[in-house]
C-alpha cells in the first residue's frame, strides 16, 4: 500500500550485499532497566537520483538492496525484534516499486518538483493512524506518520525528511525546520507523552565536523548538533544530547567542491526524543562499485550516500524532553 497525499489523514545481521561498519554510541538516555522496554529498529539511506535516472545497473542493484534490507535487515544487535521496523529512503525514484510482503509506504512518489522522501514501515508490527507528506522547502520533501504497535501500546511518530542545502543559505534551514515543526505539531509530536524519531538527510554538519575542515567552517552554512536540531523542531529542551545514531561522514560519492574528498560530509541522521540508543551501524560501507566509482563520478556525478541503521530502546512509560 502506498500513501501519497500531502494532507494529514487519520485512519541476524545486515544482509551480505549491504556492507556496514559498527559505531560506538553514547550512554543510554531516558530508559530505566527496571521498566518494560521494546526495541525499535530504523534505517535511513539516500542513494541519490543519479542512481535511478542515469545508471540502470545502479537502479537495479539499489532496488534489490532495498528489498533485501526491508525483508531481512536485522538490526546490528541481532534479530530479537525480527528485523527493521522503519526505513527512510531519500531520492529512491522508482514509482512502481513494491516493497516486500508486509511492508507499506508513505510518500513513494515524486513531490516538490522532482524530489522523493519515502517512509517504509512494517505493517505487521505497526498501524498508521495519521500521516502527512509535502514540501519542507522548494524541491525538498518529507513523509511522516503516527504509528501504534499492532499489539497495542504507546504511539510513535516517525518522520523521513530531505532538508535543503544550507552551506550558503541559513534561511533554507530555518524554512525547513519551521515547516516540519508545524507538521509534527499537527501530528501530535509536541505532546509531553509523545515519542518522535527523525530520519533525515539534514544537509547540516555538527559544529565540530565543520570546524575540522577549513572550507566547511568558512562557508557560512548551518551547523547543528542533534540537540539543536531537535530543539529547532520543538522536540527537545534538555541540555544533554538526545538518543541518536552517531554522526558519520556519509556524503557523497562525488565531492561537492574542489578540495573535498569523497564522503567527507555529515548530514544523514537518525535522532529521537525518547528512549536509549542500543547500537548503530553505517550501511554500504565501503560503498558498492555499482553505486560509487571513479567511472561513475565522471559519467554521472553520482552523489550516492552511505546509509545508517539504528536500534532504539523505548520504555513502555516514556520520558521525553519537549521544548515549549
Helix content: 10-25%
Choose one word for the global shape. Answer: globular
Whole-angstrom Rg: 18 Å
Provide a count of the helices: 7
The low-pLDDT segments are 4-20, 22-32, 74-81, 318-322
Mean pLDDT: 84
Separation of termini? 36 Å
Largest sheet: 8 strands, mixed
Question: Would you count the extended β strands for me?
Answer: 13
> Which percent range describes the beta-strand content?
25-35%
Encode the helix/strand succession as letters. Answer: EEEHHEEEEEEHEHHHEEHE
SS-derived structural category: alpha+beta
Side by side, the strands of the main sheet go: 1-5-6-4-3-13-12-2
Oligomer: single chain
Secondary-structure blueprint of this entry?
Elements lengths: L1 E2 L16 E4 L13 E9 L4 H4 L2 H17 L13 E5 L12 E4 L10 E6 L3 E12 L2 E10 L6 E7 L7 H17 L8 E7 L5 H5 L2 H5 L7 H7 L35 E5 L3 E8 L10 H7 L6 E9 L9
Please explain how this structure is put together.
With 324 residues, the chain is α+β, with helices and mostly antiparallel strands. The protein contains seven helices and 13 strands. The chain has an eight-stranded mixed beta sheet, with no helix packed on it. It has a five-stranded mixed beta sheet with strand order 7-8-9-10-11, with helices on one face. Helices cover 19% and strands 27% of the residues. The chain has helices at 50-53, 56-72, 170-186, 207-211, 214-218, 226-232, 294-300, and strands spanning 2-3, 20-23, 37-45, 86-90, 103-106, 117-122, 126-137, 140-149, 156-162, 195-201, 268-272, 276-283, 307-315.
